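Record filed here:
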Amino acid sequence: MVSGSKHAREIELASRGHATGRDGFVVESWQRCLTRHGLDPAAACEAVIVPQTRLKEHRQQSEELVHIARSGLERLYAQVAGQNYVLLLSDMKGVTVEFMGDPHFDHRLRRAGLYLGSEWLEERAGTCAIGACLATGEALTIHQDDHFDLTHTPLSCTAAPIYDGLGGLAAVLDISLLSSPTPKVSQNLALHLVTATARRIEMANLMASQRRNWVLRFSHSPEFLDVDPDAAIAVDADGRICGMTHRGARLLGASIGQAGGALPGLIGERLDRFFPIGMDGLPDLTRDRPAHERLLRLRDGSVVFAHAIEPPTRWKSARPP
């Protein structure tokens, strides 16, 4: 384990612009911890577990998302439990509202903060995967002494953001290890798994919240279009974007030269701003046609395969003329 003085010295030097082998997002987090949050890299802090009354409030506020995410969380945990990973689902305030881990390690996990009710905002815990993910909105790994606080340096934590259909960062999915191999590349598969699970949870959430509207799902591969699409958008009866997954936002944003696919500028826009089709073209993209024929070109010339899902007839007929 790295010594406290050496770790603190590296953080201070990196914050002053000295060359480092760390990922850029790690150094940026260290800088936030020092300048914005006033944390001391030489001071070891115990993990924060919120009281049961606060935890109950946080869990109630996240109840709908947790319900939708449940099968995806259980599937991910089944994939990684054999390697001693712990699964955490954090809300927007950095509080763990769902936890899956080996009960034999309960005491060690609780001490490390890898537990239900643990609080992982940067201002509380320093550089950590959940806190950095909340700050950047990006999937990332904070591995061992990437952590700001010395008490967390044995851990390896990998997190991915979960966005709601209107573009807000709704939750963070994290899988962590009490101990892991030293090379950070050992966590590349973990990063892939949490990112894929977060994408599927966003997809399930969009489908559940947009039952009254058309949903367009996209893939770069026709073979996976109908079973595991990459992105999706929802379109209302007037042909306007009313929801999307985060990758859906990026897809549309890129098509009009909007870096990052910022959602506030996309919600309410007409479908034909991004594609050379209107509402009357959506029936041609249903499963009535083979997936490889459902090719759709965006305004920037890029091409995706599309699957249009029509709202149930009873809701269509209920709309005013």
